[in-house]
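Dear U.,

Please find below the material for section 3 of the report. The protein was modelled together with NAP; I have listed the sequence and SMILES used, followed by the predicted complex structure.
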Amino acid sequence: MSSNNTRTAIVTGASKGLGAGIAKALAGSGAAVVVNYREDAAGAERVVADIAAKGGRAIAVRSDVTRGDDVRELFDRAREEYGPVDVLVNNAAVVTFAPLSHITEEEFQREMNTNLLGPILTTQALAAQDDIDAASIINISTAGTLTHPSYASLYVASKSAVNAFTIVAAKELGPRGIRVNAIMPGPSDTEGSRAMGFPGSAQEAQAIADTPLGRTGTPEDYGPLVAFLASDDARWITGDVILASGGMR
Ligand SMILES: NC(=O)c1ccc[n+]([C@@H]2O[C@H](COP(=O)([O-])OP(=O)(O)OC[C@H]3O[C@@H](n4cnc5c(N)ncnc54)[C@H](OP(=O)(O)O)[C@@H]3O)[C@@H](O)[C@H]2O)c1
């Protein structure tokens, strides 16, 4: 596999969970990694320390992906430290499982702004760089866009929009050598899913029963796939939305 030696990667929401696993895998493949977070500075610094302990390069940068000014500062900081950004992983997201009657206008805006506007703002910032001749964007979607779990209408709608955005953006940015793909993880053990009471729940038991490989995912399961999509080995893959769920569909 070709290396990511010359790459500068931003991973949004990498202070914990799948983003942390993805940041470590990208650093392990040679990329310099910007570990983005919104509130959890300590978590982001732990990820940076783990990467440094293995000889990798990383910095932690606070930025709220729902805010255009923050996103521009995130890219400025990344470029200042490591040069042009040519790998972007849109991982930051918020999730609620709730009945339709619980969806307020405020919750709609919080979820859509984080899960959809965030990736749009970061993709714009990557594309605004006029000194890159190739780049790879990987959007983290969910297998829920195929399985359509109950009480996840807003979350699944936001991620289905991410899948569509991925395919359309790939068409627009392809002529500039910017590839755009998404992956659809299955239910996984993360700080976020723990906070929602997923481990040990009836939903977790059902998810395992519905997964041919017989378990839930871990942050380590997704890093190698993202590192592959970020590398030149994936040079002919764009506009794809790839299921990575132990076979759950
Ligand atoms: N876990 C699962 O079962 C599962 C399954 C399928 C897909 N996914 C997808 O995988 C991704 C990661 O999920 P996870 O479970 O690892 O999440 P998590 O443990 O809840 O972590 C979420 C991360 O997103 C960051 N974040 C939230 N809002 C942000 C904002 N406005 N700006 C910047 N960062 C923000 C958080 O930062 P701070 O904590 O620093 O605020 C944190 O680093 C998400 O896209 C999710 O939809 C997860």
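For the text of the report, you could mention the following: The beta strands are 8-11, 32-37, 57-62, 87-90, 135-140, 178-185, 241-244.

Regards,
Y.
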